[in-house]
């Protein structure tokens, strides 16, 4: 899980946030922390292949970057729960096979 935030993911986030170079270390730290937190909550999604999960990681990172992280979980509770439930249903399906 160390290299889940690829240079492409970082660039995509910087483009979305309209940020220039110079903050890469801080942005990588924020993106990694967001990914780690959401994997704990939602399950082991792959930011590189799951667009819904990547969107949520980017949103949490945006809140962290803007010093408003305390509002993220309440504002995105539905999306967090949907991913969490989706992972739980996937696991139930796998157990049934």
Largest sheet: none
Q: Looking at the chains present, what oligomeric state does this protein adopt?
A: single chain
**Nearest-integer average pLDDT:** 92
Element string (H = helix, E = strand):
HHHHH
Rounded to the nearest angstrom, the radius of gyration is: 14 Å
- Give the uncertain stretches in residue-range form: none
Strand content: under 5%
The total strand number stands at 0
Basic shape? globular
Terminus-to-terminus distance: 27 Å
Q: Assign the structural class, choosing from mainly alpha, mainly beta, alpha/beta, alpha+beta, or little secondary structure.
A: mainly alpha
Number of helices: 5
Helix content: over 70%
Describe the overall structure.
This protein is an all-alpha fold and 97 residues long. It is 71% helix and 0% strand. The chain is built from five helices and no strands. The longest helix is centred in the last third of the chain and has 20 residues, at 77-96. The mean pLDDT is 92.
In short:
By secondary structure, this protein is mostly helical. The chain is built from 5 helices and no strands.
SSE diagram, text form:
Elements (H helix, E strand, L loop, with lengths): L6 H11 L6 H19 L8 H15 L6 H4 L1 H20 L1
Helix pairs in contact: 2-3
Keywords:
single chain; 97 residues; mainly alpha; 71% helix; 0% strand
């Amino acid at each position: 899980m160390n290299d889940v935030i690829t240079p492409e993911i970082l660039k995509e986030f910087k483009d979305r946030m309209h940020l220039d170079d110079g903050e890469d270390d801080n942005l990588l730290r924020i993106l990694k922390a967001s990914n780690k937190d959401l994997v704990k909550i939602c399950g082991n999604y792959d930011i590189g292949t799951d667009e819904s999960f990547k969107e949520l990681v980017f949103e949490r990172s945006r809140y962290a970057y803007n010093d408003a992280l305390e509002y993220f979980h309440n504002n995105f509770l539905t999306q967090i729960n949907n991913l969490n439930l989706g992972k739980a249903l996937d696991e139930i399906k796998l157990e049934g096979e």
